Amino acid sequence: MRQAYQLRLADLGEHGYEMSQFTSDSLRKATRALLEADLVLAEQVIASDVKLDLMRASAENVALELLALESPVASDLRVVVSAMWIVSDLQRMGQLAIHVAKAARRRHPAHVIPMDVRPIIERMGRVGVHLADQAGLVLRERDIDLARRLEVEDDLMDDLQRELFGALLAPTWRHGVAPAVDIALLIRFYERFADHAVAVARRVVFLVTGENVGGDTTPAMAPSDPLSVQ
Question: Which of 23, 97, 153, 170 could form a disulfide with 93, with the two C-beta atoms 3.0–4.6 Å apart?
């Protein structure tokens, strides 16, 4: 019985790793759809919402079964509770990638991103994908050192956010209001995606050590309205 219980705990970690890879791939595709005005790719990312919900439900079912049937205590209880927080963060990351894809679909066949700020968006996409990949490794390996490094790596996303806002507010901005609004929303989507990847890493630190390293540790529903991004 104990061996079966440990296998179910391991399943939770694997669910988290698979979701992190899914969100990483979703953001990679969404960014490409955005930059290339690729409607087909954007629709693929948007349609992934169903799979994302199923992945979260599957992980939560395992967690609830362990809580209801096994009455885990101490470190095992931390694993179960942390897993429920983590899948909530990962689902929100997937939803944010979907919001990026919806921006591409909304303006198709036009390009959303003007050429002069395109390199910044490209870098934001790469940083977001990297953070999601690293969060997946943290989950799989329970690597506390890597988890703590994600806090520092997230600073690059903040730097890019400031750079892009600077471009939007500069007197030389010549692309009008609509593109500026689109880009302001996209900045928020990428920034929150990175924040949730860091939150996953923080929760793994709690899972392994019991240490609360700061940040929001209260799960919330994934937003469906891009103006209420969490």
Answer: 23
